[in-house]
Specification:
The chain is mostly beta strands and 117 residues long. 0% of the residues lie in helices and 56% in strands. It is built from no helices and eleven strands.
Length: 117
């Protein structure tokens, strides 16, 4: 059974940095893409960054130039380096995996990021 495992997050002051990691585990399948979303107070989800086949990267407008997504050390994982964090970056960060196993899309439980002085 596919599981999306997230790590990282926490609390930091404005201007600080955090690193999130995400991976899909639990069987023999291919990982086509991994992406981070931020969930707001009304449960809306905003794309933060994505990493897909062919090392294609995509970023949300609010994080361009500050966040970097990259391939992780383990197969099927990605890291999200978040620099120059701002209070508006606060939220629950969820990882989404697109894999070859039905139903194809799986979500992690989320990790809290809080940016506050």
């Amino acid at each position: 059974q596919v599981q999306v495992v997230e790590s990282g997050g926490g609390s930091v002051q404005p201007g600080g940095s955090l690193r999130l990691s995400c991976g899909a585990t639990g069987g023999n399948f291919s990982v086509y893409a991994l992406a981070w979303y931020r969930q707001g107070p009304q449960n809306q989800r905003e794309l933060i960054a994505s990493f897909s086949s062919g090392d294609r990267k995509n970023y949300g407008d609010s994080v361009k130039g500050r966040f970097t997504i990259s391939r992780g050390n383990a197969k099927g994982t990605v890291d999200l380096q978040m620099n120059d964090l701002k209070p508006e970056d606060t939220g629950v960060y969820l990882c989404r995996a697109i894999v070859s196993t039905s139903p194809g899309i799986f979500w992690g439980q989320g990790t809290q990021v809080t940016v506050s002085s």
